[in-house]
Amino acid sequence: MLFLHDTFPDGFLWGAGSAAYQSEGAWRQDGKGASVWDGWAAPGGDVASDSYNNQFRDAEGLRRLGLRHYRFSLAWARLLPNGTGAPSAAGLEHYARLLRRLRARGVEPVVTLYHWDLPRALQRALGGWASPALPDLFRAYAELCFRHFGAHVRYWLTMDNPYVVAWHGYATGRLPPGVRGGAAMGYRAARHLLQAHAKVWHLYNDHFRPTQGGEVSIALSSHWIKPQYMSEQNIKECQKSLDFVLGWFAKPIFIDGDYPESMKSNLSSLLPEFSEAEKKYIKGTADFFALSFGATLSFQLLDSHMKFQQVESLSLRQLLFWINSEYNHPKIFIVENSWFVSGSTKRDDAKYMYYLKKFIMETLKAIRYDGIDVFGYTVWSLMDGFEWHRGYSIRRGLYYVDFESHDKKFMPKSSALFYQKLIEKNAPPPLEAHSKFWPPLL
């Protein structure tokens, strides 16, 4: 049993996150270039939460909740409008100013270089991540960011959820850039994403880590799955399901530079091979395990055939245990977690708060019962915004955003007040522990 006085480790990094396209808006302001998401679905993220023009509002929102870190992404096309070439002075100043504001408020920046919003110019000219030219262009973009912002950043994430980028961007075409290239193109894009990540990790490790002292990883998303029947075959199918989504990227990076055996044996010539030199180059290119676990990424965008006829589950604790066992006991940073509520929900978000408490309690159990080294937790997201393929039909923010108001009015929800108390105590608030919205302690 967890006792009410059980706390999270000292120095635990509580925070919240956002992605540039979901929150910034200002899609053509100050010379920003277009991304593959611009124009995909009207009105899209043209305005979103208007964070580009409301930096002070967002930073104060972080301070009021006592958040210790803020995960946000840089918009590649805001910094390099064409994806390469001369950088935008306005873009550089925008993010430099945000980093200064975060530091002034004692908030640790956790910066994602690429959260799905590829510059449209690179897609049109080269074919995007299907092109072998992209890894070197991504490295050049990362070098710009390390040089300009690295003195203020301790945690970098190269990219978010490459499974979604490769599979739904280039195989199924469900998401931008909408290429319906089938499995072969999806696996080709994934190969380039892995190469790009490795190039950036080595760039930082060789040239920036000695002076900046930061850490670099990649945000990997996963579901959890249980066997439909407790048979050896069903259990193997569950392993295969996790291999085909999380292991696709995690095994090359954390184990041996190569794909899971279940993928290699089932996909045959569809899966592009890595040379021995490439395997060695990719292996070990993460300083911690950055995990995303939530409704949109882990479940709604998981193709049904990736379940291999088994049953999905919301057990974050079991997933953490599996990652710990499968990937050599890495330190884990939960860089995205939450559920969602209807887009019509105002500030009383009881359903969202229920799931948030459930996931936080499972994280505490994983730390205290299972001895898993989880050192940070990120609620997704700081504010309501554009929710990708769901648009504005759902909300996932700690802060309610009134999208109809001119200044995008910004107000804390009941979940934000809960989270504020939890951070203050570094533990579940005792008075809430047996409420009807609190998951059982056992």
From TrEMBL:
InterPro entries: GH, GH_1_N_CS, Glyco_hydro_1. The gene is KL. It comes from Crocodylus porosus (Saltwater crocodile). GO terms for molecular function: fibroblast growth factor binding; fibroblast growth factor receptor binding; hydrolase activity, hydrolyzing O-glycosyl compounds. Belongs to the glycosyl hydrolase 1 family. SUPFAM superfamilies: (Trans)glycosidases (SSF51445). One of its GO terms (biological process) is fibroblast growth factor receptor signaling pathway. This is Klotho.
